[in-house]
Specification:
The complex is a heterodimer of chains A (221) and B (207).
Chain A lengths: L5 E6 L16 E2 L2 E2 H9 L5 E6 L3 H11 L4 E4 L8 H8 L7 E5 L2 E3 L1 H11 L5 E6 L7 E3 L10 E2 L1 E3 L6 E9 L11 H5 L5 E5 L2 E3 L3 H14 L1
Parallel strand pairs in A: 1-4, 1-6, 4-5, 8-13
Antiparallel strand pairs in A: 2-3, 6-12, 7-14, 8-12, 9-11, 9-12, 10-13
Chain B lengths: L8 E5 L1 H5 L4 H9 L2 H12 L5 H12 L4 H10 L4 H9 L4 E8 H11 L2 E9 L5 E5 L3 H11 L4 E6 L5 H6 L2 E5 L7 H6 L2 E3 L2 H10 L1
Classes of the chains: A alpha/beta (221), B alpha/beta (207).
């Protein structure tokens, strides 16, 4: 048992597939930004929250100065040349043991998020998986035993498709984030198989994702 | 064992608008009834529209008219963020105030904090005038600290345009917006932006 000391939310990316000219975490759904939803839901679960910014950072900095004054903003000025793995490595400054890492463009069911953080305290590495639905999924292969309590990830793959995809959420040690990896899942690949848990979420990568997410939020609120 | 060796990180803090929750110089200016004027000058300086050195000379010329004892009294009454104060007092061996403010003005405050200091230097002339001898370049303070070899790592916290070189020279530069939004140049020079004193202290303790 090792409590999760903090969350690192990666918000530095361009979000070019969505093409809205703003960071994806700043999209408003139901009158609230994606980032505000995450921060508000994380607040009771972890003592510290780091938000990594890059693309149009001034929007996120101003948003946090107004609404979330107790988060630490970490800058990735090289966001155009680097990737999320680099961002979350920067975002881990001051985090030592066990951290929840997640993308800032996720809309996560609050109960599912809470269960994930609680389970994350019990295992060294916990990988978030979700029903395959996004347009450019990284699929995961899981062993046949499909019981939520003992679910595990064996491998990540672009192809062939499986029922489950990498949710861009994991709980683990900052020491896992070795320099050089392009994608976040590549950082944790050497440590597979690892415990996994289903997390109920939507990723907002494309206009179609956004429509699905909107419908999902309306249905849940 | 040398007390200085217990920690290898140095923490450098800007004074006005970072440690203090109001700007000091406008408070002194209030004594002369020119607080509005000096506040304007401070704002222009914070925004980087007037070079800090020129502004500091102007402000010293104006505020030097206030008797030293009175300046000390005013500075002693300027409110400071309690959590930052506590952090500095409990890490006094590796905390430093890095300020363009004058040594002769802030001496009692520094004594109260018990920490190190890099500041501008001035003397009180026989005629009772404040003579500005040297204005601190904040990045040079960081270089000086590095050359002592006492620290493996330097963390700097500040809010103004004149803090930008210090934030850039440090290993970890933090633009602080707890009192007012940090200057754009300070933010561009920083690794992190923090808007709350408690959050800042929590992070500093974790680094």
């Amino acid at each position: 048992m090792q409590v999760v000391e903090g969350a690192v939310i990666a918000c530095a990316g361009l979000g070019s597939r969505l093409g809205m000219g703003m960071p994806k975490c700043m999209i408003e759904l139901g009158g609230k930004t994606v980032l505000s939803r995450l921060i508000e839901d994380l607040r009771p679960l972890v003592p510290r929250i780091h938000v990594v910014v890059g693309y149009r950072e001034e929007l996120i900095v101003a948003h946090c100065a107004q609404h979330h004054r107790d988060v630490v903003i970490v800058r990735n000025p090289d966001f155009r040349m680097t990737n999320t793995a680099h961002s979350i490595r920067l975002g881990s400054m001051g985090m030592q043991s066990k951290v929840l890492y997640l993308d800032g463009d996720l809309i996560i069911d609050p109960t599912s998020l809470r269960n994930f953080v609680m389970r994350g305290a019990e295992v060294p590495l916990l990988i978030g998986v979700t029903r395959a639905k996004s347009s450019q999924a990284v699929f995961v292969t899981v062993p046949d035993t499909n019981i939520a309590q003992c679910m595990a990830v064996d491998a990540f793959q672009r192809d062939p498709a499986t029922l489950w995809e990498w949710a861009n959420v994991f709980v683990g040690s900052p020491a896992l984030l070795k320099p050089g990896s392009r994608y976040v899942y590549e950082c944790i690949e050497p440590f597979l198989p690892a415990a996994a848990q289903i997390i109920d979420l939507y990723e907002v990568d494309t206009p179609e994702d956004l429509e699905q997410a909107k419908a999902w939020i309306q249905q849940n609120e | 064992m040398n007390a200085f060796k217990t920690s290898s990180t140095a923490f450098c803090f800007d004074l006005d608008g970072t440690l203090t929750t109001t700007e000091i110089l406008p408070c002194i200016a209030a004594e002369l009834g020119v607080s509005g004027e000096v506040a304007t000058l401070t704002k222009l300086t914070m925004d980087g529209l007037i070079p800090f050195e020129d502004s500091m000379r102007l402000r010293t010329l104006i505020l030097g008219q206030v008797p030293l004892a009175q300046v000390h009294e005013i500075i002693a009454s300027v409110p400071m963020a309690p959590s930052l104060l506590e952090f500095m007092q409990s890490h006094s061996n590796n905390c430093f105030v890095v300020t363009g403010n004058l040594d002769i003005w802030i001496a009692p405050l520094i004594a109260q904090l018990g920490c190190g200091v890099f500041s501008s230097r001035a003397v009180l002339t026989d005629a009772g005038m404040v003579r500005l001898d040297a204005i601190l370049a904040k990045d040079e303070a960081i270089q000086t600290l590095r050359t002592t070899g006492r620290f493996d790592r330097i963390v700097a916290v500040g809010d103004g345009a004149n803090d930008a070189p210090m934030l850039r020279a440090a290993d970890i530069g933090i633009a602080y917006g707890g009192v007012h939004p940090p200057a754009a140049s300070a933010m561009q020079a920083a690794h992190m932006v923090i808007n709350d004193a408690e959050t800042l202290c929590k992070l500093l303790k974790a680094l």
